[in-house]
Amino acid sequence: MYLKVRVSLETAQPRATRLIAIDPALTLDRVHAVLQSAFGWSNSHLHQFTQRNCRLEDRKFFIYPYWEPDMLEVGSFADPETDVSIGEVLREAGDFCYYEYDFGDSWVHRLELEGQAEPADFAYVIEGAGQAPEEDSRGRQTDRELPVHVLSRDALAEVNARIEASSNPRVSADVALVFGDRVGPIFGATWERIVDARNQELNDLCVALMKQPVPQLTPELQQELVQVLAPWADFLDEAEREIPLTKSGYLAPKFTGGFVEKWKINAWTKSLREVDIPQMWRLHEVSKAAKLRRKYRSTLRLSSTGKAARNDHPELIRRLSAASFARYSDAFFRDAMVLGLMLVATGAQAYVPVGARVDGRELRESVAECLAAMGWMIDGVTPNSYHVTMATEALETVLDPLHQHVDPSPELALYCAWQALKA
């Protein structure tokens, strides 16, 4: 069942209200999009959710990712709004919280749980009255009590159409409004082509990505992630000590040989030249694209970005993933990689390193089917799994840079897929 939530715009006269049916699993960043549409706001100002107790200083904040720590009030407690569902905040009838939009005009909305409502594909307004003020109109807002008109059937239909447009990938191409901070700029171009395709299977995949909670880095995952990222950490540590280069700018054979022996890399050759060992070439080129190191005379040195990412695993994942995308300028390959991440992030398919197991082809076959639904053709035929071997490259660069067929836990693959989508 959905939650039946009464939303009152308390700081406006006359007061506007909406009775909204909301999926309890909807995270607060998605509730923000619903409220924007329900009241006709333009999503052009900052916002926050707060859960207030009797004493103002005890209130709890739910914040969006662009907040800086020093912007929070002293003594308050904050959780990312992407981590908290509306059902966790409003549990029983009478529970309430607040949503503030535009800190200059301070439009404060009170959300109170009244009961349950019938579920639907998207949130919807059951009834409403009054209109929200114009944006940036606080100084001109009247305090006189004016008549509040109940929304007509046509007006409700218009409001619900806006909500669907902000929630339905087939209707809206506004990435920021639909996904919030869940995805990064690389996702944008693929998203536009997905919307243009107007395909039900692609739409279902996008809806699943919208509704999927963003996984958190638990202590158990952190421990596994440290092990998985160990080759990258070691390479960055070596760069901090300076990695020698040849006159042509390649990794020195002595360094390459030591790294190959230390990590037992299957090089398939006795040559210690970087160009003959794909794993070493990947470490060198991806770290360059990710701006994790810099060249200084005849050595590689750790950059300031590399120093920061070395101890910030989510940031390291995002930078490595973005560097993987940077290798491909063709939209087909980028779409394949984004779709691969989406399938893993939603749990529709499991991540399997290329060549590790035969059943790893299932993910690539699903990516090929999605590409075909988007209208892609390869030499006049629809794509197949052999055309999309790069579909898992963003994850493979993070999880298995040395081609050792590392098989991470499903939870870690899911977490890394979400971080890669933010690249």
Q: Order of helices and strands, N to C?
A: EEHEEEHEEEHHHHHHEHHEEHHHHHH
Annotation field: number of helices: 16
Average pLDDT number: 84
Cα end-to-end separation = 35 Å
> What integer value in Å does the Rg equal?
25 Å
Coarse shape: elongated
Show unreliable segments. Answer: 53-58, 65-76
What count of structural domains?
2
The proportion of residues in beta strands is: 5-15%
Secondary-structure class: alpha+beta
Question: How many strands, what sense, and barrel or not for the largest sheet?
Answer: 8 strands, mixed
Annotation, overall tally of beta strands: 11
Strand order of the largest sheet: 5-4-3-6-7-1-2-8
Helix content: 40-55%
Domain Plasmid pRiA4b Orf3-like: 3-140
Pfam families: PRiA4_ORF3 (PF07929)
Protein name: Plasmid pRiA4b ORF-3 family protein
Organism: Corynebacterium casei LMG S-19264
Please provide a written account of the structure:
This is Plasmid pRiA4b ORF-3 family protein. It comes from Corynebacterium casei LMG S-19264. It holds the Pfam family PRiA4_ORF3. With 423 residues, the chain is of the alpha+beta class. It has two domains: 2-167, MM3350-like (Structural Genomics Hypothetical 15.5 Kd Protein In mrcA-pckA Intergenic Region, Chain A); 176-423, no CATH class. 41% of the residues lie in helices and 14% in strands. It is built from 16 helices and eleven strands. It has an eight-stranded mixed β-sheet with strand order 5-4-3-6-7-1-2-8. It has a three-stranded antiparallel β-sheet with strand order 9-11-10. It is elongated.
